Amino acid sequence: MLLAVVALLLPPGVALGQGGKVAVVITFKDDISTLDPAVGYDWQNWSIIKSLFDGLMDYEPGTTKLVPHLAESYTISSDARTYTFKLRQGVKFTNGREVTAQDFKYSLERMLNPKTQSPGPGFFSGIVGVKAFQEGKAAEVTGIKVVDPSTLQITLDAANAAFLHTMAINFSHVVPREEVEKAGADFGHKPVGTGAFRLKEWVLGQRVVLERNPNYFLKGRPRAQEIVILVGVEPSVALLRFQRGEVDILGDGIPPARFVQVMSDPKQKALVVIGDQLQTGYVTINTEVKPFTDVRVRRALNMAIDKRKIVRIINNRAVPANQVLPPLMPGYDKAYKGYPYDPAAARKLLAEAGYPNGFSTTLYANNTDPNPRIAQAIQADLARIRVKVELKTLAQSTVIEAGGTKGKAPLIWSGGMAWIADYPDPNNFYWPILSCAARGPGSWNWAWYCNQRAEQMAKAADALVRPEQAKIRAERFQAMYRTVMADAPWIPIFNERRYTMRSARLSGPTAIFVDPIHIPVHYDEVGLK
Amino acid sequence: MARYLVLRLGQALLVLFGITLVAFVITFLVPADPARMIAGQSATAETVQRIRHELGLDLPLPAQFGRYLRHVLRGDLGRSYAQKVDVAALLRSRFPATVELMVAGIVFELLIGLPAGILAAVRRDSWLDRTVMVGAFLGVSAPQFAVGLLLLYLVAFKLQVLPLGGYGGLSHVLLPALTLGIAGGGWYARVMRSAMVEVLTQDYVRTARAKGLPGVQVVSKHALKNAILPVVTMVGLDFGTFMGGVVVVESVFGWPGIGQLAWQAIQIVDIPVIMGVVIFSALAIVTGNLLADLVYPLLDPKIRYQ
Amino acid sequence: MTGGSDAALVEAVSRRGTAVPRRGRPPQAWDRLKRNPLALAGLAVVGLVVLAAILAPWVAPFDPVEQFPDGLSPEGRPLGPTGQFWLGTDLLGRDLVSRLLYGARVSLLVGVLANGAALLIGTMLGGLAGYLKGWTGAVFMRFTDMMMAFPALLLAIALSAILRPSLWIVALVIALVNWVWIARVVYAQMLALSSREFVEAARAVGVPTGRLLVRHLLPHLVPTLLVWGTLGVSTTVLFEAALSFLGVGVRPPTPSWGGMINESQSYFLDAPWLVIFPGMAILVTSLAFNLVGDGLRDALDPQMRGR
Q: CB under 8 Å to A461, separation ≥6 — which residues?
């Protein structure tokens, strides 16, 4: 008790605002989980990890263009199954040691090792020898070869056009073995990498402070001296602090409650950068549950939803969607019209399918705002075509579980849970959530959809590896997605836009505040005026 | 006395065991898979299965509980599934803030509630009494989120007298403690008033008054001592409740207390953290009730324990 | 009459007038109640709320779940009070008046039933434990410790998946969770009460335990019970909202006052009426119950007036 009284009177170690002069301050509501690149997989730590670690490939800031990063160059074999990366010279970990090809082999094998509990191995299952390694039958992954200290060679089972993207995602970023072994299970809280920043301070539950890495291999980066990440801050309060000049970027975005007020004030609106996301929000229709086994019913549902009304409910922060891919994704089908909003036609189609009086079903949704409201709007729309929807708004983990359980969830509104692309390639919207390969217990293919023809089309398109084949590949994917949409396993509802509010004293091109890969901002590129 | 304490300690251990068991079983009933939550979106079924195996989640329930119990008895509360950090470290990091808010919160509840309750009792049935009563109901009925946000907006944002949330010393804890005080003060006011009125109408008080003892003395010495009993009970209850975390106030003010930790953990089924918080708050509740039970005989000598 | 000789003795020994049954009590009590303006006002309000709940389908101007396109501004903002929507609209363009009227059903059920049940269970168990003391008392109190540390929210999530969520389930969960607090308070009071001389005297005279508990001790608990019973209405209504949020209880789009507050809390600075109107409804209802409760207590025993 005495301790508590003393604690009350004594000022704490750090007062807020002290870092405000040299540091870029950003706020989040949730705690930062882990900064281990092999393990971290939430939208919050994803970009922070990108600034602490590096991979062979990366994206040009503000774009979805893939370029070599720690790899200086690479060559692809004639059968497109072997990639040889030449490493950049002189790249150092923040502990001073230079990076070699062996480090990459170590990092990849560490991530693939079940003991690490990484979410990532699924992206790399195409590398030769991964399965044997994971099952303990082999001591190493034979497909990853250290040719010499500065050359790494990776061989795949089959050609994969998206392979280079997997060399850019966090799971393949390089980590120093000696630091991992020293920190043991705590590496996620004591990260050591090659990135533009290094960890300066981490006070659990309060803040994470990053300081610039003076030996970063890219000259002139990072632009900022220090980044202070405050956690536990409610979005509405974050906005108040932003307006008081205490905060530079709202990590969780403009709170929906204040959105209209902010955007109608010209002074505040000027501080908002608008962009798009690699995101689609959709309703999954469980193709294994009656009456949704009938494609006519699924199509009818697609015609019953007033997407403009739903977009208005979220203050026009999105654009209505008519297909699987978001507009920002390379390969988006601009010509595709999708299903029109036509409740009368929907009712007719339902009658044709044998449900002139409609039927009852259940819609699952996440319980965080605005998802219950969107779900209720969908419920009201479906009521108009005599489909009686019972709503289940539950905790996220419960909905995800229901989606992955056979025959359990007839309809699921994906908002707040899915789907944001892992990397900017059209196949990322197919394999994890619509493919036959993914379908099964625990998967994110909540529609339990399987179309063998689409599967073959996607596989064939993924074999088109060469840059000159990119256009044909995009067309193949468009054809594949049209096939999928004809089956209507989803009702695409909207694609969220991004509204990043940033203080006037931040420098950097506007594109970095709506960088498709780095959310909410490309930490390496942001600076102070 | 010593015998009583030993007895209570033994009982406390039993209670803790019971809670641990029940909470563990309940986390099992929650239809969510922690392995799936860790594996995230694009993970394949094999990845999820491997993670599940590494965490020991594919063992049957009794085996898992046994494993957990063995670790706890060794002092190891496990590692958070999501944050990959020691649960004990997480709890430690939240402890000072939780205690600070609890003390400040209780202080404000008493500061607001007790004087109001006494005044209302002494000026029974007057307009003051009615105002206090309505005020108490207002405080209790007002949703804490709205009250906190309003206070923050008016005092910290508009008037700029206090900081906009965050953790710290007196200036930072003032508004969150006030929010808690408004919400809880109403209870204390009503209970205090009730108890005071009951005592004030007793014969011995009437006698004291008739004898000519000054009003204040009558109130303070005799009435308060007896009326304070239910208040002590409530403080004991508050102790336990606050230590379990007051997530709404913590969220609004960005106070790094245990409530936020627990809430986040429940959302993603981070079982080690959930269990850690449950054990921690169970400890606090048992302690709070024990302290209250120990204080009763001091206030009313006729209360005795076998 | 009832309790004749022992009552007289008890009264003589006790330090204050206790609630002794009097002849022909009911008619006199009703007269006293009728003369209490505040209690009547409270009764009127409670009556209004009950009527609103029952007659909602006939009295409500609109369907509470209908989402009006002109209920939202072009940017999707809810409307304040207008000619068409007297108390404004909510975040989905639904009429607030209609939702408040229909919401009364949930809140009354929860506030009265759940709260009442918690009160009943808590008083019975807490009172017994405080009176019996010894091992029974100890075991019981440790059990309440356990129940208090029980992660109620976790239980709610687990239940939401197993059971078919309904109002009765949520009332049950609330009662199961809240009785513990009342039990603790009653226990402490009973400890103090049962150590008083008049209890020893009554026992010495041979008053049976049951009568002692109900006739002589229980009335002393009434003030405490009233406090918890009436303030508890508000807290249980708000608790219901938290439970519904987790999936136990009323499901959208069924309105409930607590739920209406919950879903618009973060909009408080922009659309405060979304929180204020349901909040006022909760406040007024619980206050009304309080006035009625106070009035009832005064009416049943004028000697306890003003507690």
A: A161, A427, A473, A476, A477, A480
